[in-house]
Design brief:
Blueprint: E1 2-3, E2 6-8, E3 11-13, E4 20-25, E5 28-37, H1 41-58, H2 63-79, H3 81-92, H4 96-116, E6 123-126, E7 132-140, E8 143-147, H5 155-166, E9 170-174, H6 180-192, E10 200-202, H7 207-216, E11 222-226, H8 229-241, E12 245-249, E13 254-258, H9 264-276, E14 286-292, H10 296-308, H11 328-344, E15 347-350, E16 369-374, H12 379-382, E17 389-395, H13 398-406, E18 410-411, E19 413-417, H14 421-430, E20 435-438, E21 450-451, E22 454-455, E23 463-464, H15 470-474, E24 475-483, H16 489-494
Parallel strand pairs: 1-5, 8-9, 8-11, 9-10, 11-12, 13-14, 13-19, 14-17, 16-17, 19-20
Antiparallel strand pairs: 2-3, 4-5, 6-7, 7-24, 15-16, 18-22, 21-23
Helix pairs in contact: 1-7, 2-4, 2-6, 3-4, 4-5, 9-10
Bound molecules: NADP nicotinamide-adenine-dinucleotide phosphate (NAP).
Length: 495
């Protein structure tokens, strides 16, 4: 069991209240992964104060020097990748290979953002007037409050912390209460890499208490949030009322289209890993498979067979394909949606219950579940379930399939399996999601392109790399005009 603390002004400290809570292994409720400070407002006050003070010098630290610290952090993460992966599996439940992939994303982000320290470029453009020049430069926003979910407990903090720091901001980080140990280990890496005190502060505790207080704290300049739509919308309202910049990345109801000309081997594999990978707990998970009516019967047979071979268990065991869901409340929510699906008249094709064989009785395991004959209006086809439940929907043709994909409040990720170049081009153009995959599942973003969704999934394109990605979130433009004519401005304009 890990004793975990807050990290404020370069020191590991307990919560002022002295209270704590436990982080539990979802594969075995009896295993306590960490005992964690249950912080209050006074801990946030201290962290914000430290971040404000550190901002004075951090913003003036040359960006390439800031980047070097991130590079060292990436090197340390790489060295510790295996132990990070195992910790993540114990605390969050995803299978080890996926946990290692999550850590690798953080490593990649560290190297990538380290390089941005030498590329934080703006524009120089010619002036309309002689003897004048003009440019735009990126400047930091100030103190950033970062709030993260549990499903990528190392990668998502890295997606936020690294760009925030390279741009010259200081940070108060409030991680998910389900994965606080992973968050603390991640912050430890940055401290070991040589980050000056106060630049990155970590405060554990409940979202409703410390998270919300952080979002509205007068000492904070901007917020970056990833989590559910309900929480994100609530925080957007708070920030709107106090004119504070907030970036929200939220849920998804992602879909795969399988056309009648699709390579079914690829499509079935994409549906399996998109639907049941990370136990369906990815924001990009493929929870709807929209199948052309001519391919439906064959696809469903093969999807069911492939699903029935999935091995459920503790993610540390090599043979496991599907781990537990994160906690009791999510366990109950997923089972409730399975009941809703049955009541709505969907046909249960596979799974449909909790999985309690052997040692799985100690954890939050649910069978990979497939519903067929789902209609687009059903709640299981509209609402984010965030568990191993996939709905198969029949479509008349490509146009109908695209309409079904677009007909949810979300717009994060979508995919199409087809061998027809024209169908793929139409789908690429008409699918209303931030990310579109062709002949690949809805999952697997790479860090050097922007990441984000539209509609209830977020404002889009504000995370990760690429033009207009994370740097636009974590810096703002300052525009500078310089006149070296020595002439009165009025005289110049009159000419
Ligand atoms: P969540 O319940 O919304 O929580 C996310 C974070 O917000 C946690 O740190 C939580 O703290 C905190 N929080 C909760 N209520 C708060 C409040 N009133 N004020 C401030 N902070 C508050 O979401 P989750 O269950 O952790 O994560 C799953 C969701 O995240 C899914 O909807 C998934 O699709 C989405 N997600 C989106 C992306 C993306 O990039 N679009 C990526 C990953 C996940 P506590 O843990 O202490 O409650």
């Amino acid at each position: 069991m890990e004793p975990v603390k807050n990290y404020i002004n370069g020191k590991w400290v307990k919560a002022k209240s002295g209270k704590s809570f436990r982080s539990i292994n979802p594969a075995n409720k009896n295993e306590v992964v960490g005992v964690v400070p249950k912080s209050g407002r006074e801990d946030i006050d201290q962290a914000v104060k430290a971040a404000r003070e550190a901002y004075e010098s951090w913003q003036l630290t040359p960006a390439p020097r800031r980047g070097e610290i991130l590079f060292r952090a990436a090197e340390i993460l790489l060295r510790k990748k295996e132990s990070f992966g195992k910790l993540e599996t114990r605390e969050m439940g995803k299978i080890l290979s996926e946990a290692l992939g999550d850590v690798q994303e953080a490593i990649d982000m560290g190297y990538y953002m380290a390089g941005e320290g030498r590329r934080l470029s703006g524009e120089t453009v010619p002036s309309e007037l002689p003897n004048k020049d003009m440019k735009s430069v990126r400047v930091p926003m100030g103190v950033f409050g970062l709030i993260t979910p549990w499903n990528f407990p190392v990668a998502i903090p890295a997606w936020k912390v690294f760009p925030a720091l390279v741009c010259g901001n200081t940070v108060v980080f409030k991680p998910s209460s389900d994965t606080p140990v992973c968050a603390a280990k991640f912050v430890e890496v940055l401290a070991e890499a040589g980050l000056p005190k106060g630049v990155l502060n970590l405060v554990h505790g409940s979202g409703g208490e410390v998270g919300e207080y952080l979002v509205s704290h007068p000492g904070v300049d901007a917020i970056s949030f990833t989590g559910s739509f309900d929480t994100g919308k609530h925080l957007e309202a708070i920030c709107g009322a106090i004119h504070r910049m907030i970036v929200t990345e939220m849920g998804g109801k992602n879909a795969i289209i399988v056309m009648d000309d699709a390579n079914l081997d690829l499509a079935v594999e994409g549906a399996i890993w998109g639907g049941f990978g990370t136990t369906g707990q990815r924001c990009t998970a493929a929870s709807r498979i929209i199948v052309h009516k001519k391919a439906y019967k064959k696809f469903i047979e093969r999807f069911k067979t492939a699903g029935s071979y999935l091995s459920i268990g503790n993610g540390l065991q090599r043979e496991t394909d599907v781990g537990p869901v994160i906690n009791e409340s999510q366990f109950n929510k997923v089972l409730k949606y399975i009941e809703i699906g049955k009541k709505e008249g969907a046909k249960l094709i596979l799974g449909g219950k909790a999985y309690r064989k052997g040692s799985c009785s100690k954890g939050y395991f649910i069978e990979p579940t497939i519903f067929g004959e789902v209609t687009p209006e059903m709640r299981i086809a509209q609402e984010e379930i965030f568990g191993p439940v996939v709905s198969a929907i029949k479509a008349e043709d490509l146009e109908d399939a695209i309409q079904i994909v677009n007909h949810t409040p979300y717009g994060l990720s979508s995919a199409i399996y087809t061998q027809n170049v024209n169908s793929s081009a139409i789908a690429e153009r008409d699918l209303e999601t931030g990310i579109v995959y062709i002949n690949a599942s809805t999952i697997g973003a790479e860090i050097h392109l922007p990441f984000g969704g539209i509609k209830h999934s977020g404002y889009g394109r504000k995370e990760a790399g690429g033009r207009g990605g994370a740097l636009d979130t974590y810096s703002r433009w300052k525009v500078i005009y310089r006149d070296f004519s020595g002439q009165l401005q009025k005289a110049q304009i009159d000419k």
